[in-house]
Amino acid sequence: MTTRRRRVRAVRYGTRPRRRVALAVIATLLSAVPLLTVGPVLGGAARAQTTAGDLPLTLTVTGIDPTAPQPGDQLTVSGVLSNPTGLSYDGLFLALRLQDPTTPPLQSRAALLDVATSTDHFASDNAGDPIPIGSLAAGATVRYRLQVAVDALPLTTAGVYRISVEAYRGDISNREYDGRVNTFLPWLPPSAAVPAVQVAWVWPLLSTPRLLTASSFTDDGLGVEIGPSGRLGLLLAVAGQAAAQTGVVPDQGAPPLPGSVDPAPTPVPIRPVPVTPVIDPENLQELTLMADPAVPYQVKGVPGSYRDAAAGYLAELRALTATTPAIVTPYGDPDIEALFAAHAGQLVTQAQSTGLESGLTGVATGLMWPPDGTLSQATLDQLTVSGLVLSSKAVPASTADPGYTPTARTDVSRPGGTVPAVVVDDGLSRLAVTPVPVADRALLEQRFAAETAAIAVEGGAPARTLVLAPGRRWSSKGSSIRALLDETGRLPWLNPVNVPQALQAAPDPAVVRSAVHQPPNQPSLPSGLAGRIAATNSELAGFRSILCPAPAAGAGATTTPAPASPSSAPGTTTAPVCNRDDETLSLQRSLYRAASTAFRKPGSGGETLLDAAAAELRRDEGQVKIVPKGEEVLVGNRPRLPISIVNNLKVPVKVQVVLRPRSAQLRPPRAITLTIPAQSNVQQDITITVTSARAGQQRVLVDAQLLTPNSRDFGTPVPLTVRVSGAGAVVVVITIAVCGLLALAVVVRLYRRIRNARRRSSAPDEPDAVPAPEVAATADPEPEG
To answer: 422 - beta bridge partners?
Structure first.
């Protein structure tokens, strides 16, 4: 079989020109073969797999153990060598190589980032003995395992050393390199006495709101997410595992070197990693409803399928928050900046208050992680916070580069003082959540260890803190996050803490940051959705204002007494408590959900939740209304128009009613305030002034409108039809004239009776005289009573 080695020799010694042409064609084809690499992490600063692009064989490092070697350890590097070409390679060797001993180790993060993507060959000898591979056929793979005693390596100074695994052919004076992987080896022995760097992890456990106002769900997606293989289920399991890890890093002791005394290995403790979970109270409400066995939750009218999963997830979540403090978002995780821009900042304040009612133990009250870690100064000035978790984009360093990685702790100015804050290390955060192939995760973990080690040795403030935060609704699938959390508790130069502990650290006076601000082009709710939420919230405030009026001084409650509770004395009743906040809380929460950061993409679901909330609000408003009657006839210049108002709510209301004539013939009266008991109706006669009327009757439209106690329109106006009689004044005059004539006739009749009686008493006894005909003719009949 013709081997790669023979072909190379034929080219070198000029045999057969046709082979030279064939090899040129093959080389062109081989250059197009893609090598096994991983996309850039840290914004393009590194690749986990750094096989040189011009080398034909593919090297993969699947394990470096231990990640952070100590004196007396044995370093083991394992992986796979693959031949993706169509040629066979003979006489292959694999070797571990350390950077030139005369080159100092990397002792700063900046120095490490400068060489993170390098695929150069190290001009140094092998670290340990090479292992022979022999022949590697086309398309074949072989596993390898390289071992070397750490004490045999020239690790003289604390820092980060560059190492590589190389596949080559030939002897030391004439080698051909066919594959290479470069990575890092942190070396911080106990003798280095490097101050530990505090590391805090922000751990978002947030989902998309799915709860409708009728206690039903838009879909069963939350149940899928909390499953064992779901996004939230995996995140919670990883956090619980990291918070409970203990023990000692397994001993990796190497056999003693010839002629030396093997030092006793320094045990490295495994410490718990108390991540700081970020929880949305709205998600807790959904989980509680799902787990309630008394009332099975509904998904579009069909019973849901994840009751047991919800109960189990809640139990695990409560167990986690019992050991580490949690950050609770405002209810629904609303888009704070979008709501303030839509002049609905009151919703944010209300959502914050609702979020405090989560019922979880260990909540860090007043601590906020705003969406995207950014916040404008105007918004901050209106919020009640005791601590902030911010992105470095929100408060970038405004001083010159201090030569080291600044501590996360800083202070943010606001009127009346400052607010303590921690700044997320965006670079390390991206590294931690970068999805990589399984075969390349070991290199990513090694990069994480090396970068944190470089931060630890680069100097600066004596005690520094790093804060890492993944995306708000990120998924851990495909990332090395489980291993990185484990390493946070195993690397001796790192000290795992939670976010409240990180906030207690001291700021670095040498590092000055700019004022808090929101960078341009930040994601946000669609302006149309935010505006509709603000308008619906204003309408809801009007509805809330009419509910549960306070009783007048000296008056009793307007609500009907409730039946006595079982513990009450026989024959007693308990007056129900009428609280307008309780009556509108469900609707308010619907608006918080519609404003969630999960709905920043148009059509992602916020509009559906808002439509459902607005429909329910209109239904509730429709329970208090004016009942129109038939046509009314108004006679006179100040007639009374009867108005009927019904309240079908279960609580009393206080409203105003006003008439708004559509014609100048009628003068609008003043508004009348009414208190209407629950589930009842009242009728009120309202006097209206007729300014002018012609003969006959004219039809006039009058709008009857309900108002809130602060004189804002409530509901839609009800048109009433009335007829104004033009003969009204004439009828009144005629009636007065007739009444006057009748009164005069009564007086005349009384006078005549008295006069006749006097005459009879003064005349002699005679037979009764017959009345004179003329008198009888003029006498008026007695009016009917």
So the answer is: 389, 409
Distance in angstroms (rounded) separating the CA atoms of residues 646 and 551? 19
Provide the sign of the torsion angle of the four alpha carbons 119, 123, 124, 130, taken in this order: positive
Q: What is the DSSP string of 691-737?
A: ----SSEEEEEEEEEEE-TTS-EEEEEEEEEEEEETTHHHHHHHHHH
Sequence-distant (6+) residues with CB within 8 A of 598 are 206, 207, 208, 209, 333, 473, 604, 605, 606
CB 125 within 8 A of CB 39: no
Cα distance between residue 331 and residue 592, in whole Å: 6
> Is the pLDDT higher at 764 or at 14?
764
Encode 345-393 in three state secondary structure: HHHHHHHHHHHCCCCCCCECCCEECCHHHCCCHHHHHCCCCCEEEEECC
Pairing of strands 159-171, 141-149: unpaired
Task: Report how far residue 60's alpha carbon sits from residue 179's, in angstroms, rounded to the nearest whole number.
Answer: 10
| Neighbouring C-beta atoms of residue 382, cutoff 10 Å | 13
The yes-or-no verdict on residue 9 having pLDDT over 70 is: no
**Three-class SS of 141-202:** EEEEEEEEEHHHCCCCCCEEEEEEEEEEEEECCEEEEEEEEEEEEEECCHHHCCCCEEEEEE
For residue 773, name the pLDDT band (cuts at 50, 70, 90).
very low
Q: Give the contacts of 618 (CB within 8 A, at least 6 positions apart).
A: none
Residue 534 has which token pair?
A: 């603000």
Q: Which residue has the higher pLDDT, 134 or 5?
A: 134
pLDDT band, residue 65 (cuts 50/70/90): very high
Task: Say if residue 22's pLDDT is above 70.
Answer: no
pLDDT in tens, 743-758: 888 888 887 888 787 7
Candidates 100, 55, 91; CA nearest to 171 is 91
Q: CA–CA separation, 167 vs 181, rounded Å?
A: 9
At position 384, the amino acid (one-letter code) is: T
The pLDDT of residue 576? 58
* pLDDT per residue as tens digits for the range 495-543: 999 999 999 999 998 889 999 999 988 899 998 999 999 999 999 999 9
pLDDT at position 360 is 81
Please give the residue that has the higher pLDDT: either 166 or 5. 166
DSSP state of 293: S
**Would you say 546 and 624 are in contact if contact means Cβ atoms under 8 Å apart?**
yes
d(CA 55, CA 167): 10
pLDDT at 15 over 50: no
The packing angle between helices 231-244 and 481-490, to 10°, is 10
Burial profile 67-100: b = 16 or more Cβ within 10 angstroms, e = fewer = bbbbbbbbbbbbbebbbbbebbbebbbbbbbbbe
Read off the tokens for 749. Answer: 């009749």
Q: What percent of the chain has pLDDT over 90?
A: 58
DSSP letters, 44-74, are TTB-S----TT-SSEEEEEEEESSS--TTBE
At residue 682, the 3 state secondary structure works out as strand
The structure tokens listed for 612 are: 């459902």
Nearest-angstrom CA–CA distance, 198 and 408: 10
Q: What is the pLDDT of residues 258-288, one digit of tens each?
A: 766 656 667 889 999 999 999 999 999 999 9
Amino acid letter for position 679: Q
Buried b (16+ CB within 10 A) or exposed e, 133-148: bebbeeeeebebebbb
Q: Is 397 within 8 Å of 512 (Cβ atoms)?
A: yes
Omega before 66 cis (within 30°)?
Answer: yes
